[in-house]
Amino acid sequence: xxxxxxGIDDTDNKESRxxxxxxxxxxxxxxxQKRGIVDGITRHQLLFxxxxxxxxxxxxxxxxxRTPDISEIIRLSRAYLLKESAKGSDVGLAVLAYEYIDEEIxxxxxxxxxxxxxxxxxxxxxxxxxxxxxxxTGDLGGIIGSLAALGLRKSGEDGxxxxxxxxxxxDLKGVYKIETLLEKLHVDLIVDKQGNKLxxxxxxxxxxxxxxxxxxxxxxxxxDKILNxxxxxxxxxxxxxxKSISD
Length: 247
Fold this sequence. Notes:
2 domains, 26% strand, six-stranded antiparallel beta sheet, 32% helix
């Protein structure tokens, strides 16, 4: 099995479901057709700038897949995006084996969070690094963000998870023991804001919005201490806090 990253960007319009939804549906398709195992899908925030055309949030997504056949993953991803992406979208698709995503591609990802980049630059880098990169619809501008998604995911220091090992984590609700949540979510760490691991016997409320971040290449849930509550000792940190450290 080969570990492969799939970057997608700009699959939506103002009326359609977003790129995060499309990435999860693609993940289900890959596993449903037994073309690979999707270990995680991450969301990566790119630059907000009025000179950049984007639908709502200018974020891209990256699927982390184990597969015996990269060419089949490309074929399936391409066919899905051509069929399902919204009218007027500018879809980009980028695919490369994890081990070949190097510091130059990682740097491209972080540049896309801070600079206005061009399709020509994206194509030149993809050619140099032998990345499968293709614009599928519209003006093809999604190649910039899809290539960035590969680098940002490989960096191990950007983004947050919207899928983990087949689990629709957006549907996860309720209170769990720390030990149980570690196993259920397949995360590496559950910590407080200072980075201290939480006692495994403590309980945590995952609230309405649990999105593990990736920090130091570890899948990490961050929580706040809750006082004077008999039902749980911790609560997953707020959406606003998580966005502040992962966007």
